[in-house]
Amino acid sequence: MKKTGKILVGLFSLAVVVFLLIQLVPYGKDHTNPPVTGEPAWDSPETRALAKRACFDCHSNETVYPWYSNVAPVSWLVMHDIEEGRGNLNFSEWETGSKWAQHAADEAGKAIQTGKMPLPIYVIQHPEARLTDAEKQALIKGLAASLK
Q1: Is 117 helix (H, G, I), strand (E, B) or coil?
Q2: Which end of the chain is more exposed for a tag (fewer CB within 10 A), N or C?
Q3: CA 63: distance to chain centroid?
């Protein structure tokens, strides 16, 4: 075997060992959802259904974890996105009437309108979260009514 071939086999072997070792890191593998303690007063079942379809996996305590969320390093990225999403807006721990709620409604509407939410990487794996322009407008309007 040529020297280049040995180097490639060694690098591949090292990559496999590293991949197997990172599976031992527990971060991202606990898929226990916290309890739901409150939800917004949804203006309609349609608004909740749109939010559930496009937002709940990262912005609620009702996350449905896909199979790849068990494999590092993807599990780390999924968990990071969920923690960040819940930290910014959590439909499952809602306090109706707070000043924070009004700010959240405004920010959520802007994020949907500009295409920042749902995250493009999320929509690739979850095509059901892709919203039509009409659905985006309905969700923005519904969130504004529900979250105030």
Answers
A1: coil
A2: N
A3: 8
Question: Three-class SS of residue 53?
Answer: helix
Query: From CA 3, how far away is CA 75, in angstroms rounded?
Result: 36
SS3 per-residue string spanning 56-84: HHHHCCCCCCCHHHHCCCHHHHHHHHHHH
Nearest Cα neighbor of 129 from 39, 57, 43 is 57
Q: How many structural domains compose the chain?
A: 1
Quote the domain boundaries for residue 125: 3-147
The answer to whether 146 and 47 are in contact (CB under 8 A) is yes
Residue 42's contacts (CB-CB under 8 Å, 6 or more residues apart) are 48, 51, 142, 146
Q: Angle at Cα 130 formed by Cα 89 and Cα 141, nearest 5°?
A: 55
pLDDT tens digit sequence for 55-110: 999 999 999 999 999 999 999 999 999 999 999 899 999 876 566 777 887 899 99
